[in-house]
Structure formats: structure tokens, C-alpha cells
């Protein structure tokens, strides 16, 4: 059940949080340059990303209202399929609080229900939010998401039996807890565009205040590439399974082999698992039709 822990090569999941004017898009492009490879940018900010076209080479895909989770998921899948190395989502906040985003969808679902129950409406919306997050996390490329922020306050005792509002930080405009999904989260200030890591699994930026640059991306990619190559390992496992499936000569052997290796197949990344399942169905059809003799098509 348990295995020795090992750090694998990974793809970046970075959130850049800040108010308007804090340099989120500029910082995202600088870091993306350092990560290397082709850059794609999902633009929900009225094509403002293209204003930085002189900064580096990148391609854009514009999302306009309604900012539904499906639009984001389709754009993420398209960037992955096109072979980009880095995807910037600018901004991820629109999927939550923008026109037609998840909050808007929740309000409409609550209004459409007989009871108008807000809690019940979340049962309909939460799976769509979860699917969006899974799309972001599962993409085979680096992802940098910009998030708008709003000032958050809390009421504390002032020592005289009264409550007073105290600023407790900047809350990203997205569902609470979304920051847990990212490798690192940088808060950006308006003055000087200085970044502070509020979360950093890489531990490269703990306790530091810095302006994001190309070198920031280079440091991140060096850390991400230090580890076991999980993709190469998965590809080797997939190829070995594919070769064995192609060599199966009868349905009895086929069924027994598939049951025996089910856990191994389930452990593959979804893309590799899909390839194996497709190959399985093709081989099964061949065997059922009796089109195979001595392991080869007749």
C-alpha cells in the first residue's frame, strides 16, 4: 500500500494575486518567459493582454461574457492540444465573479428553484467548479493564473468591549480555498509591483519580497525539473502494456490479463489510460470477430 516518497518532475501551477495596477499580466509574461517554450494567454480582460505584445512572443484566445467554466475548460484543453508550454489565464477571477460565471450561475439556479434555497443551488454549481479546477490541475503544461483581489476585513475586540474592523489582507476573487490548489501563490503590490509569496511549495521564495522577472521563471523551472520524470515513466508503462495487449491471442487470455493488470492500468495518467483502453477495445473486437491468427490480422 505505502511506497517510498519521491519528488517527481512537475508542471507549475502559479497564482498571481493583486488589485488593478499591480502588474499581474506583466509579471505572468515575465515568469512565462523564464519557464521557456511557447506561451498562450487566455484573455478575459477585453484584449488587454495584447498590449504587452512587445514584451515577448505569445498567442491569445479571447473569452467574452458569459464567463462559463466550460469556456475556460475548452481553452485550457485547446492550449494543451496545440502543444503550448505555458498557459496564462488572465484572469481566473471572471470564472467566479464575472458575468455568467459561477456566482452568477448559482444565483440563477437558486432563483429557478421552487424554494429559492441558496445552499441547494450550490449542489448544482460546485461540480462545475470542481471540473474547472481539475482541468487546470490536469493540464500537461505550466499554468499561471491571475486573480483579482479585494481587501478583506475582520471584526476584532478593541479592548473596550466594542468591535472594530481590522484589515487582514487581500482576498482573491475566486472561491474560498482555491489558493490551496496552486504550487505557489504570489501577492503583488501596486507600489513597485513587489511580490510576496503567501504560499510556496517550492520554498524558493519563503520570506522574500521581489519583483517577478524572467529569472523568477528560470528558478521555478529548475526546481520543477529536479525530480523523477513521471511522464517518461508513465509512457514506458503504457508502451509495455500496449505491446502485451497486441500480443494476446484469444479472448480467454485477454479477459484474464485485463483483470490481472487493472490496477496498473488505472494508475496511468488519463491520456495514457485512454490510449490503452482504446487499444483494448480494438483488440477485443478483432478477437471476437476471429480476425486474428497467430497474433496477426488475417
Describe the structure.
By secondary structure, the chain is of the alpha/beta class. The chain has 2 domains: 13-225, Rossmann fold; 230-297. The protein has 10 helices and 11 strands. The strands form 2 sheets. Strands 1, 2, 3, 4, 5, 6, 7, 8 and 9 form a 9-stranded mixed β-sheet that branches. Strands 10-11 form a two-stranded antiparallel sheet. A hairpin with an 8-residue loop joins strand 8 (195-200) and strand 9 (209-210). Helix 1 crosses helix 6 and helix 2 (69-81) packs parallel to helix 5 (118-138).
Average pLDDT number: 87
* CATH superfamily (homologous) name of the largest domain: P-loop containing nucleotide triphosphate hydrolases
CATH architecture of the largest domain: 3-Layer(aba) Sandwich
Instruction: Indicate the percent of residues in helices.
Output: 40-55%
Helix/strand class: alpha/beta
CATH class categorisation of the largest domain = Alpha Beta
How would a crystallographer describe the biggest sheet? Answer: 9 strands, mixed
Could you name the ranges where pLDDT drops below 50 across 5 or more consecutive residues?
none
Listing every helix as H and every strand as E from the N terminus to the C terminus, the arrangement reads: EHEEHEHHHEEEEEHHHHHEE
Record field, number of beta strands:
11
Q: How many helical elements?
A: 10
Strand content: 15-25%
Amino acid at each position: 500500500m505505502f511506497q517510498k516518497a519521491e519528488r517527481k518532475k512537475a508542471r507549475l501551477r502559479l497564482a498571481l494575486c493583486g488589485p488593478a495596477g499591480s502588474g499581474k499580466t506583466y509579471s505572468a509574461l515575465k515568469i512565462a518567459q523564464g519557464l521557456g517554450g511557447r506561451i498562450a494567454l487566455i484573455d478575459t480582460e477585453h484584449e488587454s493582454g495584447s498590449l504587452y505584445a512587445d514584451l515577448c512572443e505569445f498567442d491569445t484566445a479571447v473569452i467574452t461574457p458569459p464567463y462559463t467554466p466550460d469556456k475556460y475548460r475548452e481553452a485550457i484543453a485547446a492550449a494543451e492540444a496545440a502543444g503550448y508550454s505555458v498557459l496564462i489565464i488572465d484572469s481566473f477571477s471572471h470564472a467566479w465573479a464575472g458575468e455568467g460565471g459561477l456566482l452568477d450561475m448559482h444565483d440563477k439556479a437558486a432563483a429557478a428553484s421552487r424554494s429559492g434555497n441558496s445552499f441547494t443551488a450550490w449542489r448544482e454549481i460546485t461540480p462545475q467548479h470542481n471540473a474547472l479546477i481539475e482541468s487546470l490541475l490536469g493540464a500537461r503544461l505550466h499554468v499561471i493564473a491571475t486573480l483579482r483581489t479585494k481587501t478583506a476585513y475582520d471584526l476584532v475586540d478593541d479592548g473596550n468591549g466594542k468591535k472594530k474592523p481590522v484589515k487582514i489582507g487581500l482576498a482573491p476573487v475566486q472561491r474560498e480555498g482555491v489558493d490551496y490548489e496552486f504550487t505557489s501563490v504570489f501577492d503583488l503590490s501596486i507600489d513597485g509591483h513587489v511580490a510576496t509569496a503567501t504560499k510556496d511549495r517550492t520554498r524558493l521564495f519563503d520570506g522574500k519580497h521581489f519583483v517577478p522577472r524572467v529569472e523568477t521563471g528560470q528558478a521555478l523551472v529548475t526546481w520543477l525539473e529536479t525530480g523523477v520524470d513521471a511522464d517518461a515513466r508513465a509512457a514506458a508503462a503504457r508502451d509495455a502494456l500496449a505491446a502485451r495487449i497486441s500480443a494476446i491471442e484469444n479472448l480467454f487470455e485477454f479477459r484474464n490479463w485485463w483483470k490481472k493488470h487493472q490496477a496498473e492500468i488505472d494508475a496511468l495518467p488519463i491520456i495514457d489510460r485512454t490510449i490503452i483502453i482504446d487499444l483494448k477495445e480494438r483488440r477485443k473486437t478483432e478477437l471476437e470477430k476471429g480476425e486474428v491468427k497467430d497474433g496477426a490480422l488475417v
